[in-house]
Structure formats: structure tokens, C-alpha cells
């Protein structure tokens, strides 16, 4: 979770991996398609090993897998082949640390190309990613926290330059938040660093924190070259419609805007285990077209999302299997706190009380063999240690109380809708086209809110435009999507709920906070959680922040989202990852 996207977070950012969870990180994009990435802060417990786990705090099914990727040793995976991977957006921004690039679909590509200081197992335990970092540890806590990273001296960028401490320093300076011309997705963690400097040689990085930061493993994940962070212009535009430098088992091959494909090819200069696949071709299709392409044999893998019809069709596809796992991902509605109709928190709270989340959840998850308990926490999933219900009265469907709140806010009944100052109370529910799940959610919302006098206008927009032209610029009132999380629930989520900052000329900047509501109190609680080295106190701080976020009604959680992937049965080391970090060099077809 935040998460973290999760976007995904995971995430970095609950990531836009996410998230996030999660995103965004927290952390986050619409389900089965655009899912914001989140990067999370607190280490969390998964649901067990690669098999099944026991009962969870939120009542998730006992049979839930922590990951489902058909793991196989490299010697069982044949050399060669092309993997055709379905995605739901053809992104333009390929800097995952940029607010516009912090998307799950970007992360799926970037993870094959860029360094990550750490990787996570299925239980959310983070360890150094030895392709890039041989060792990383806290070497001092007083007077300040100092972390030493021992870099792999074999690691190089595709332009031939070695990966050194200077890349880490440049990323810190870009993401720490001092220069608001850098349009960053999140400053979490980076803003707590006092310095990044050279250690014994160019391959040791010494990171000194001004404030304690318990989830330091969430940083530099991914890492971009110093050229990408050298200036605001390089950061904001240098990766628009281009991937100039890589350092992974694959390198960038080509874009095809007409076919909406992104092609990666094996990097023969990669110093790690040679990639099994020759190519990965990511193909962007409308959400409702993905399952058809999969069942027709045009795709080898895609994220189904919580769509029962697509789940059933993919399950019956020839030579295919469904891989399902619990992860740090959650479905939600985001409320735009700057929208004229929803600027009053009482109106947002009334809308929440007028929504039967249990009914929406049951509708979304019907036919998926998944737990339908509503999610009542913004940071922790039902399956994570630290989860508690902080929704209070807003967690219950109460249309009568919703009507009283609207009356108190000055919106009076003028059958069938409410009016104030001659203006009708109407909200735009923006959804990505082609996603049946979102359409159903919108229609249910429309019917439910009509009962309390709130008119809902459903606006379907092209999937490719959903984030870039609607969510990120705030051109919506309510929107449904998912946050894809990471093993770090707070750091990736921080950007999703952080209060606004002031940019050049005093302009308000919300960065990854798409709900555009926050408070200093929420920020303080989140920072307390992320800086406390005691896990119990850190979780308590996160739950304190969660209670405040519920009252703001920024993000309305619906449920922990099942990770449902349609995968060709002969594929190994890919599927529903949960907290597990996929090893792209090991993905391939079984011998």
C-alpha cells in the first residue's frame, strides 16, 4: 500500500507505483489500466509465503496468495522469444519521478530499464539489489543517521558512464523539494536528507539525514542518471517521448505512436544475468480491448484488474492461466477538494455517507472469488500489520445523515436536486472510456447520490487522456482509479495526501495529491510516522494521519484490490507480484 500505486509505487511513488501504496505514492491511474504508483514507508507483513496465508486483520480469504508468478530457475527458462505485454495507456512522460510520469504503466516499462537500489520479496522484506548495490546499511545514528551504499562497480549507464555517487546526489537535489521548478511526484524521504557525498571512492555513497527516516530503503528506487536531474528542464522535458539512457537487462528499442507500442530489446552490455527474452513489446489498448487481444493470442500477459467479465474470458483463453495475489493495491474514488461543488468538506462527507461502499465493492468484485470487506484505511491493507478501521461514522452508509449535512452546508432540496444561490449541486464523475468497471461504479454512484439530491454527470474520456488531461490538472469532481503500492506504506503515500506547496509567484502546487485537500496536521502526523524508528509508534502515527484524512475526504477507499493477471501458461517469473519485485532478466518461456 500506500501506492504507491502503489504508482507503483511499488512505486516508488502508495507510488505512481501508485501510489503506491501505491505510487504515489503511494501509492498512483484507473484500475486495470492507469494505476497511480505509490511508494510506501513502513515495512509491512505480507500474507504468507508463496502459497497461502492464514486469516488476516481485515478478513481477507485464508487462501490468498502473497504472490503468483510461476517462479522457475533460469535454467528452466529458454533463451529468446518476444513477450507481448498489454497496457492501457501510451505514456508520454518516462521520468517516473515526475508527477506526470508517476504511473503504473510507466513503472512496468521503467522497471526493465532503470536501476533500483533495493528489491522486495513476497513478504515485503527489502534487500539491496546487488546488480546495482552490493551492500547498504545504517552506519551511524548519532548525531545524525548516515547510510552507506556500496555500489556495484560493474554497473554502467547505456552511454558507457559508470553509475556513481554523483547520480545519487543529483537525484536527491532534484527530489528534495527546494526547487519547485522540478515537477516532482513526491519529495518524501529526499527532503529529510542533509547531504549526499562521495565515500571512500566513486562507488560508495554516504547519505546523511537531517531528520531520522526509518524507511530509507524506499529511496533511489528507481535511480535516474545525473543528466536527467541536472536542471528543471532536463527533469521535466528530457524524458518526454524519449528514453535517452538506461541501465537494465533491457534497453529502449522504439516507440510506434500509430500502433501505440513500446519496444524494449535485450541489452547485451548488461553485466547481470543475461535477459532470457529477446524483446518485450508493450502494446497500449483500450481497457475493454485488452482481454480480446489476450484471448485471440495477440498478447501474452496483461493486468486484468477487478473485472469479473474480463476475468472469466481470460480464464477460458486457450493456453492461459489467471494468476491472482494480494498486494498493496486498493480501489478508490478521489474527490477534488478544489472543485466548486466539493470545496466544502461537509459536502464531501455527505457524498461519502450517501454512497453504499459495500454495494459498490460487491458489484466490482462479483465473480472474482475475493474478499468484499470494504477497506477503511488509507495506508494499510486488510492483510497488513497496522491495519485498523479509522473511518468512524464516515464508514457507514447513512443517507439521512448525508441529507442533514447538505442542509447545514446551505444546499437545500428543490426536487429532485439541491440548490444553493441559484446553482444546482451537480458533480462530474470522470471515467476512462472502455472500462466497464468504472462505468458501473459511475452509474451506481449516480443512482445513490440522486437519493440525497446530488446530481451526477458521468463524463467518459479517452484512456490516454484520463490522467494527463483530467486527473493531474484537476479537471474532475470525482474519479475512480486504483493506487498501486510498494513495501513501504507511508513514504509512498505521503505525496498523495500532503498539503499544497507554493510555487513561483505563489502558485499553489499539489504535486501528487490529486484530491487537492490536506492540512499541516496531516503532514505532521505522516512525518512523525516516517521518522520514528520504533515500528509500533510509526504505525500509530500513520493511523493518526489516516483518521485526519478520513475527515478531509480526499481519497475514499473502497477495497483491497486483487491482483489478477492473465498470463500464458508457459510463461515463468511473471504474474501477480504482490510485494515481490519482478526480475525482468528471468522472465521468459519455459523450455
UniProtKB/TrEMBL annotation:
Origin species: Sphaerisporangium siamense
Spans annotated as Disordered: 1-23, 52-75
GO molecular function: peptide transmembrane transporter activity
InterPro entries, per database record: SBP_5, SBP_5_dom
Protein's recorded name: Peptide/nickel transport system substrate-binding protein
Matching Pfam families: SBP_bac_5
Gene3D superfamilies listed in its UniProt record: Dipeptide-binding Protein, Domain 1, Dipeptide-binding Protein, Domain 3, Periplasmic binding protein-like II
GO biological process: peptide transport
Start and end residues of each Solute-binding protein family domain: 146-501
Chain intervals with Pro residues compositional bias: 1-19
Amino acid at each position: 500500500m500506500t501506492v504507491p500505486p502503489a504508482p507503483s509505487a511499488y512505486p516508488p511513488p502508495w507510488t505512481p507505483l501508485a501510489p503506491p501504496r501505491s505510487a504515489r505514492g503511494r501509492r498512483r491511474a484507473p484500475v486495470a489500466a492507469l494505476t497511480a504508483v505509490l511508494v510506501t514507508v513502513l515495512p509491512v507483513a505480507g500474507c504468507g509465503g508463496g502459497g497461502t496465508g492464514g486469516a488476516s486483520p481485515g478478513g481477507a480469504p485464508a487462501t490468498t496468495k502473497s504472490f503468483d508468478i510461476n517462479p522457475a530457475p533460469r535454467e528452466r527458462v529458454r533463451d529468446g522469444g518476444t513477450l507481448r505485454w498489454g497496457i492501457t495507456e501510451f505514456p508520454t512522460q518516462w521520468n517516473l519521478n515526475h508527477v506526470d510520469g508517476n504511473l503504473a504503466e510507466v513503472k512496468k516499462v521503467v522497471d526493465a530499464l532503470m536501476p533500483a537500489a533495493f528489491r522486495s520479496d513476497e513478504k515485503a522484506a527489502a534487500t539491496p539489489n546487488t546488480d546495482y548495490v552490493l551492500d547498504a546499511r545504517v552506519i551511524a545514528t548519532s548525531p545524525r543517521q548516515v547510510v552507506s551504499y556500496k555500489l556495484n562497480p560493474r554497473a554502467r549507464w547505456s552511454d558507457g558512464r559508470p553509475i556513481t555517487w554523483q547520480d545519487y546526489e543529483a537525484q536527491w537535489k532534484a527530489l528534495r523539494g527546494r526547487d519547485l521548478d522540478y515537477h516532482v511526484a513526491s519529495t518524501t524521504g529526499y527532503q529529510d536528507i542533509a547531504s549526499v557525498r562521495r565515500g571512500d571512492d566513486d562507488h560508495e555513497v554516504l547519505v546523511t539525514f537531517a531528520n531520522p527516516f526509518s524507511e530509507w530503503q524506499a529511496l533511489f528506487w528507481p535511480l535516474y542518471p545525473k543528466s536527467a536531474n541536472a536542471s528543471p528542464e532536463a527533469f521535466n522535458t528530457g524524458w518526454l517521448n524519449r528514453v535517452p539512457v538506461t541501465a537494465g537487462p533491457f534497453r529502449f528499442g522504439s516507440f510506434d505512436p500509430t500502433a501505440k507500442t513500446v519496444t524494449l530489446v535485450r541489452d547485451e552490455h548488461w553485466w547481470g544475468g543475461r535477459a532470457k527474452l529477446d524483446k518485450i513489446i508493450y502494446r497500449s489498448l483500450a481497457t475493454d480491448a485488452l482481454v480480446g487481444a489476450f484471448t485471440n493470442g495477440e498478447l501474452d500477459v496483461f493486468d486484468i484488474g477487478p473485472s469479473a467479465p474480463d476475468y472469466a474470458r481470460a480464464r477460458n483463453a486457450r493456453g492461459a492461466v489467471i494468476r491472482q495475489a494480494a498486494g498493496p493495491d486498493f480501489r478508490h474514488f478521489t474527490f477534488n477538494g478544489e472543485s466548486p461543488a466539493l470545496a466544502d468538506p461537509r459536502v464531501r462527507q455527505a457524498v461519502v455517507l450517501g454512497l453504499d461502499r459495500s454495494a459498490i465493492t460487491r458489484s466490482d468484485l462479483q465473480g472474482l472469488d475475493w474478499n468484499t470487506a470494504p477497506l477503511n484505511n488509507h495506508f494499510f491493507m486488510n492483510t497488513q500489520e497496522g491495519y485498523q478501521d479509522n473511518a468512524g461514522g464516515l464508514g457507514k452508509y447513512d443517507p439521512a445523515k448525508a441529507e442533514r449535512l447538505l442542509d447545514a452546508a446551505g444546499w437545500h432540496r428543490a426536487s429532485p436536486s439541491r440548490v444553493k444561490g441559484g446553482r444546482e449541486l451537480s458533480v462530474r464523475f470522470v471515467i476512462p472510456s472502455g472500462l466497464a468497471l468504472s462505468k458501473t461504479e459511475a452509474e451506481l454512484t449516480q443512482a445513490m447520490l440522486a437519493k440525497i439530491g446530488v446530481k451526477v454527470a458521468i463524463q467518459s474520456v479517452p484512456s490516454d487522456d484520463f490522467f494527463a488531461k483530467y486527473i493531474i490538472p484537476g479537471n474532475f469532481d470525482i474519479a475512480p482509479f486504483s493506487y498501486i503500492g510498494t513495501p513501504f506504506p507511508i513514504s509512498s503515500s505521503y505525496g498523495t495526501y500532503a498539503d499544497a506547496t507554493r510555487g513561483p509567484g505563489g502558485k499553489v502546487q499539489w504535486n501528487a495529491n490529486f484530491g487537492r485537500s490536506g492540512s499541516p496536521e496531516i503532514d505532521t502526523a505522516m512525518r512523525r510516522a516516517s521518522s520514528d524508528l520504533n515500528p509500533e509508534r510509526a504505525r500509530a502515527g500513520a493511523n493518526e494521519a489516516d483518521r485526519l484524512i478520513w475527515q478531509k475526504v480526499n481519497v475514499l477507499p473502497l477495497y483491497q484490490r486483487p491482483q489478477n493477471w492473465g498470463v500464458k501458461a508457459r510463461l515463468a517469473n511473471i504474474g501477480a507480484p504482490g510485494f515481490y519485485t519482478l526480475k525482468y532478466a528471468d522472465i521468459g518461456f519455459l523450455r
